[in-house]
Amino acid sequence: VQSGRSVIKLLTDPDIVVGVRLLSSNETGLLHGQGDGNPLVIDSAVEPKVVVPPDELVSTSGEDRATFPGGIPIGRVSKVDLSAGQLFQVLTVTPLADLGRLTFVKVLLWEPPQ
C-alpha cells in the first residue's frame, strides 16, 4: 500500500503465503494459493497427531511479524491428507468468500506490533 495506490492479490495467488490458525486446536501453519480455480493449501507445520475436525474454521494467525492481523476468517478445511513423508498434514481449505465474484475489497492499514 502506498499513498496513491495499492496492489491487491487474491489468496489463490501462488505467491501469497498467510500465517493461519485452526480454531479448534489453536494449531498454526502456512496457507498458500495454487492459482485461480484451485483450492488453498496448508502444507506445513500441522503434525499428524493433531485432530482436524471436518469443516474446521481457518483464520489468520496474527503471530509475531505476521503480514495480516489475527482473527480474519479465511475458510474451512475440506480435506485432510498426510504429506509424502507423513511428517505433517496437508489440509485443503475452501475459502469462505467466492473469490471469483468479488466486486470490491477493503484495504487494511495495519502495522504489526514491533
Summarize the structure.
It is built from no helices and six strands. The chain is mainly β. It starts with 16 loop residues before the first strand and ends in a 19-residue tail after the last strand.
Structure description:
The structure is a single chain. With 114 residues, the protein is mainly beta. It is built from no helices and six strands. The chain has a six-stranded antiparallel barrel. The protein is globular and about 45 Å long.
Notable traits:
mainly beta, 114 residues, 6-stranded antiparallel beta barrel
| Strand elements, count | 6
Number of helices: 0
Instruction: Tell me the major beta sheet.
Output: 6 strands, antiparallel, barrel
Spans with pLDDT under 50 lasting ≥5 residues? none
Radius of gyration: 15 Å
Percent of residues in helices: under 10%
Average pLDDT, to the nearest integer? 87
Strand content: 25-35%
User: Helix- and strand-based class?
Assistant: mainly beta
Oligomeric description of these chains: single chain
**Cα separation of the termini:** 19 Å
Which shape, going by the Cα principal axes? globular
Order of strands across the biggest sheet? 1-2-3-6-5-4
User: H/E element string?
Assistant: EEEEEE
